Structure formats: structure tokens, C-alpha cells
Amino acid sequence: MTRRMPLKSVLAPYVSLPVFMWLALWAAINTGPWNLSGFSSGGMGAINALRAIAPVIVLIAGGLILLINRKERIVRLTLPEIFFWLYGLAMLGAAYQVEPWFNTAYWAFSFLAVLVVVRLFVIHGDKPLEQLLRLNILSWITASAVLVLLLFTAREILFEAETGYGIVHRVGEVASGAMSRSTGMARFAAIPAVLAFVMFWRIHSLRSWVIAVTVFAASVSLVWFMQSRGALFSLAGTLVFIMLFMGKLPRIIAVVLFVLALGGGIDLIPEETQQYVVEHSTRGTGAEGFKSMSGRDRIWSNAWEAIKEQPLLGYGPQADRRIILENAQSGSLYAWLSGGILGVIGYVGGVLVVWWIFFRIYLGNHDIPQRHWRMLMMSAGILAFFTLRSYPENTAALFSVDLLVQLPAMVYIAMLHRYLQVARRNKRRREKILCGPG
């Protein structure tokens, strides 16, 4: 019988300066440089000002810690970190052309602060991979806690309508800030859905299996209720991805379902149900809605015209709001607008390189402990969701919840690959010694 670890031992690793800094970055979400004037007003204004300045303080303090410790413990940057550092610095460089400079550079500072704290987790203690595992768990727990808090806040209004779409207008403010939009709420709900779906295929305890199914069903229902097309289709694609890469049984099931769909299996579903699914998932726009995607075709065209006028340097962070006067609605376009050619290379390159690393792990015939195999698939599932979501949303291209969840997953996958490579080299070296020369 396996003895459970005391709660104190489980929580102890989460009591550290990097954890405090990471939670401070989470607390800064939904604030900005406009809140900094609130220090003089006291009350909630001062609290929001403190939240807003947190990324800058974290960047400075964390940067000093990294500089002090650079000789004591050197752990090479992973490739995703290198690419995202390139992107963040490109944004910061482009911000110098904007006045007032700080209000624009603030968003580059916040982006870089996330990278700094991830690096602090890596150098904290003697086991970087374990630290990154804890960082991911911390982000998932925090995202789930925020979701529960938002649902509790909106409980009396949220479910009065048949859809969660437009909730931001019905609920109003939360802690003197805007309520999360339906796209944001759906994003929060998708995170536990992805994690529970991975656990569904890997756990053997009936109690744990029931919990996984319950969490998955509740999360997917919430995503469905929010009617965010980007989140719906990104989550659907992610679930297919997980089934294809999770193992033999889920892969067979996914292929069988695909064959049935191609062979007319969809006709087994009542026509009214099919129509309801299409109408709900497209918010009544049908196939026509995918052509304009709520005006994204026009937005992307305007963003591209702005990029062509200044492709090399870019316009600095939040360029879409200043140049095309609306959200760019695409991670890649936002990165190019904000950081120029180096920025888009850094952002897109970071995502592509981590997918290359994932496939090297998956196809590399590595001996991966079960715990880290589950963690790999959870991280890849999270990455798949945000990769798909970066097509209709800015996602991790700016300081956001998406970045706070996606970046730890990216760095964990890269660090796991590094550990597996070292383990393989050590194994070959031992075999060579045992076999002797010749």
C-alpha cells in the first residue's frame, strides 16, 4: 500500500521566491500602466497600482538574482527561451520610437518578466526539470482557481442567458477591472479539460477516473456554453491531437471515428442535432462566419498593410491598438507588428522549435518515467490548444494568461528533451565501459 506524503511536504516546494514572483505576475493580469496613477488615491486604486507595477519589480529583482547567480549555477537556456527572449527584446527595442516610452515599453518589460521568473525556477534547487514540473502545476492550479473565482463572481448573471457570449457586458467589473470575455473564460475552461482528458487515458483508479471524467465534462460544457468559436475549435483539435499521440487505444478510436465520419457515419446523428451543433458552434453564422471570422479578415488585412510599411523594426508592444486601432486577433501578426522581423522570428520560431523538440521526444524511443510521460502529454496538449488558438487570437504573443500557461509548458518539454539526451548518452557510456574495448 502506497503511503501518502504529508500535506506539508507536498506544499513545501511551493514556498519560494520564484513562486511568489510568479503569483505576482498572475496578479498583474487585467492591469496596465494606466493603473499606476492609483498609488495616490488609496483603496482599490492603490491595490491595482501595486498589481500593475509588479511585473517591473519582478523583472528588476529577478534580473539581479540571475546576474548574481550566473557563475554559481549555469543552466543553458532552452531553445524556446532563446527565441522568446529574441521576441521580447525586439519589442522592447521597437518601443523606443513611441512616446510616452514607458507606457509602451511596460508591456515588453512584463513579457520579459515572465521569461525571467521561468529562468529563476530553472536555477532554483538542484533539479531544474522538477522545478519546471511544479511551475506548470502551479500555473494550472492558478488558472483553475481564477476560473472558479470568475464563475462565482458571475454566478447570478452568467446562466440567466442561453449563452455565455457577451458576458463581459452583462457582468461589468471584477475588482475594478473588466470581466473576462467569453473567449477568455473559454480559454480558462479549456485548460482543465485538456489535463483531465490526458488523465482519462492514463489512470487506473476508478475514483480518479470518475474525477477526471467529471472535470472534463464540466470544463467542456463551459467551453460550449461560452460559444467562443476559437476556443471550441482549438479544443476540438487538441482532443484529436491527444488521442493520436496518447497511445494505441485512443489512436485506434480516433481513426475509427474519422473513418466513420468519412463513410457517412455523421448521418447516424439526427439532423436537428447536427443543425444545433453547427448553429451553436458558429453563433448562427454557419459556414459564412468562417469567411469573415467576426471581421478578422478586415483586421488581418489592415495589420498586414501596417506591417508592410515598417516590416523590419515594427512599432513596439500593443502596436495593434495604436496603429490599426483594434486587436490584431493573431499571434503572428501581433508579433510582427510589435517586434518587426526579429520579433516574428522569435515568436513563431519559439513555437515551431518546441514542436520539433516534442516530435523528437515522441519518436526517439526514450525510456520516459510514467510521471514525466503524463506531464509531457499534458504540456503538449496545452501547447496544442494555444498553438491553434494563436490563429484567431493574440494569445502568448503578449503578456497574458496564455503566456503564463504556455511558456512553462514549452520550457518543460525542451528541458525534458535535454534530460533524455543526457540519460541516453550516459547509458551508452556505461554500456561501452561494461562491454570493454572492441
> Helix fraction?
over 70%
Distance between the termini: 47 Å
Strand fraction: under 5%
User: Which strand order do you get reading across the main beta sheet?
Assistant: 1-2
User: What kind of sheet is the major sheet?
Assistant: 2 strands, antiparallel
Question: What overall geometry do the principal axes of the alpha carbons give?
Answer: globular
Would you tell me the overall average pLDDT? 87
Uncertain residue segments? none
Q: How many alpha or pi helices?
A: 19
Strand tally is 2
Category from helices, strands and their pairing: mainly alpha
Whole-number count of domains: 1
Which H/E pattern describes the elements?
A: HHHHHHHHEEHHHHHHHHHHH
- As an assembly, this protein is single chain
Radius of gyration: 23 Å
